[in-house]
Amino acid sequence: MVKVELPDGSKIDVPKGATVYDVAQQISPRLAEAAIAAKMNGRLVDLNKKIKENDKLEILTDKSEESLHVLNHSAAHIMAGAVVDLFPEARPTIGPSIDPVGFYYDFYINEPFTQEDLEKIQQKVEEVIAADAPFLREEITKEEAIKYYETEEKNKFKVEILKESEEAIMSFYSHDQGHFKDLCRGPHIPSSSKVKAIKILHVSSAFWRGDAERESLQRVYGVAFTSEKKLKKHLKMLEEAKKRDHRVLGKQLDLFDTADEWGPGMPLIFPKGRTILKVMGDFWEKEHKKSGYKIIQTPHIFKELVWETSGHTEYFLEHMFPVDLRGEKWYVKPMNCPGHMMIYNRRSYSYRELPVRFSEMGTVYRYELSGALHGLFRIRGFTQDDAHLFMLPDQLEDEIVGVVEMVNHFYKTFGFKEWEFFISTKPEYAIGTDEGWDHATKSLMRAMERVDIDYKIKEGEGAFYGPKIDVDVKDAIGRKWQLATIQVDFNLPDRFDINYIGEDGQKHRPFVIHRTIYGATERFLAIIIEHYAGKLPVWLSPIQAIVIPITDNHIEYAKEVVANLQRVGIRAETDLSGDRMEYKIRQATMQKIPYILNVGDKEIESQTIAVRSRGNKVEFGINPKDFAKQVLNQIENYE
C-alpha cells in the first residue's frame, strides 16, 4: 500500500500501482464517474496516471475550471481526428484550449474550409463522442516520433515542433484505436463521451507560428461543455460579445483605429479615445500620489548595454525593436523596469527611507507576430502602468496589502463586480534563495489573509524570478480578463546591484515588487468598452453632454449653455451641423452620449434646457445650473 494526500490534508492508503481513477473509485464511485482529470502534486494528469508514495492528489470534476480546459483540449483532439478523416490531405499543426473556454486547431490545407465543411466536421465529431472512444496514451522516443511524422504522416509542422523540443521521450494520444494519434503532452479526458456538448463555431485564417511570412493555415474554433445547458448559455454570451466588440464600437464611437496600412499593431487613438485614456491617467496619478508613490518618466529607447544588463537581449530579443544609431545599437524599450532600477540607483538609500515607490505610465514596444494582433487586446505599442516598490524584508507584507487594496479600489471604481486572486508559487527552474522564495510566498499569502480575500494557488506557475499574484476580472457578460500582476522580483535587483544601507552600515539587497493594475492601458480601454457595451459611465464618457439647438435661431443659446458647462469642468459640445434635429439626436444616441440637451424658444424664454438621458427619458424645464450640479456629482462619485 502507498499513501495519498487529499486536498483537505487527510491521507488514505491505496494499493501500490493504483491509478488516479482507482483512487477516485475508492473515495466514491460517484466521484469516479464525475471525474475528468486530476491534479497530482500541482500538475494536471490523466485519470490513468499511476500513484506514487505521498503524492498530493485532487480529483477534478466538471465543477473545476481546470477540468474545463482539459475537456476543451480533448475536444480539439477529437475535432482534429474528424478533420483528417474527412479531409485526408489536411495536416494538423497545433490545437490548444483557450481562455476563458474553448479551443481551436490549425490545419494546413489547400482550400479554405466552407460552412458546409464545418457542418460535416460537427457531425463527425458528434459521432466520435457518441462512440465513447477511450483516450489512449503512448510514449516513443523523439527520433521515432520524427520518423513517424516524416514518413507516415508527412507533416513538416510536427517535425519542426519535435526538432525544437529538448525532451527525449514524446507522448502521443489517440481516441480511435490509433487511427488518428497526435503529438501531445496531455492530459486528456478518459473517453470521448465526457464531452456532453460541443459546437464547431467558425473558421479563420492564421499563419504558422503567427508569422505572416510563413505558411497560411485554417484555424477552426470550437467550444465544449459537460452539458447542453452550459453550452447554450455560452453561445448566448458569444452573441452578446459580438455586439460589444471593441473594434466595432471603437469605429462607431470614433475612439481609435488599428488599420494595418500604417503599421500593424500600432493603433491611432482619436481625440475621444485620448480623452478616456486621459481620465484614466488622471485617476491613476491621483490615487498613486495619495498612496505615497513618486511619479517618474523613463526614455523610450536605451543603449544595448542596458538591455544586456537587464537580460532582455538574452531572453527577450525576438520581441524587441532594434535601432541602429550611427553604428551604435540601441533598443526601443519593451519594458519600463530597467529605467526604474537606474532611477533608484541614482543615490544611496538608508533603511530609514524605505519603502520607496516609483510609478510610471510608460509606453513600451514589443514585436508581436502579426497573426497574434487583435484590436487593442494585442498590439505592439502600448502604455503600461508600471510601478516598482523597494522595501525591507519585513515591509513586504504591508506593501502587498497596500497594492491589493489599491487593486480593489480601482476595479470597483471602474464598475467591475467580481475579480479573483491567484498566487503562483516557485517553478522548477528559479533564481534566488530558498529563504527568499519562502519569505516572499508566505508574505503574499499573509497579505491576502489580512485583507480577508480568498485566493487560489497555482503551484509551480510563478516566474523564474519570483512568486506573484495575478488578478482575473469578470466583465458584465461573464468573461474573465487577466489584469493586475503583483510580482516579487529577485532578478533585476541583482542585475542592477540594487542596495540600501542597513542599520549595520552595510549594503543589503531590498525586496522589490513590480506591479501593474491596468496592465496595458489600451487593452484596459478595450475591456471597459466591451464591459459597458460602449455606454461608458458619465465620469469616463469623452462627451458627457451634447447640446442640440432646434433651429438656427437657438444656436447662440446652445453655445452659451455649452460654455457654462465647460466652465465648471463638464465635457460638453454642441452640434451646429445643418442636419435635422431628429437626425442629430439619433447620431448622439448612437454615440452613446449620456445626456442630450435640446434648446428652443421655450428654453430660451425660461432659461432652461430639455434633458434627454439614456433610455430616451426626457425632462423639460431643467435649470442648467441644477443639471451641472447633477453631472459634477456623478463625476465626483465615479458614476
Concise summary:
By secondary structure, the protein is of the alpha+beta class. The model has no long low-confidence stretch (mean pLDDT 94).
What would your notes on this structure say?
The chain is an alpha+beta fold and 639 residues long. 36% of the residues are buried. Helix content is 35%, strand content 26%. The chain folds into four domains: 2-61, Beta-grasp domain (Ubiquitin-like (UB roll)); 66-242, Threonyl-tRNA Synthetase, Chain A, domain 2, CATH 3.30.980; 275-298 and 336-530, Bira Bifunctional Protein, Domain 2 (BirA Bifunctional Protein, domain 2), CATH 3.30.930.10; 545-636, 3-Layer(aba) Sandwich (Rossmann fold).
Question: What secondary-structure arrangement, pairings included, does this model have?
Answer:
Elements: E1 2-5, E2 11-14, H1 20-27, H2 29-34, E3 37-40, E4 43-45, E5 55-60, H3 65-86, E6 91-92, E7 103-108, H4 115-130, E8 136-141, H5 142-152, H6 156-164, E9 169-174, E10 181-183, E11 197-207, E12 216-225, H7 228-243, H8 246-252, E13 256-257, E14 268-269, H9 271-290, E15 294-295, E16 301-303, H10 304-310, H11 312-315, E17 321-325, E18 328-332, H12 337-344, E19 356-365, E20 381-391, H13 396-413, E21 418-424, H14 434-450, E22 455-458, E23 468-474, E24 480-488, H15 492-495, E25 500-501, E26 507-508, E27 511-516, H16 521-531, E28 545-549, H17 555-567, E29 572-574, H18 581-590, E30 595-599, H19 601-606, E31 609-613, E32 617-622, H20 624-636
Parallel strand pairs: 1-5, 15-19, 21-22, 28-29, 28-30
Antiparallel strand pairs: 1-2, 3-4, 3-5, 6-7, 7-12, 8-9, 9-10, 11-12, 13-14, 16-18, 17-18, 19-20, 20-27, 21-23, 23-24, 24-27, 25-26, 30-31, 31-32
Helix pairs in contact: 3-4, 5-6, 8-16, 13-14
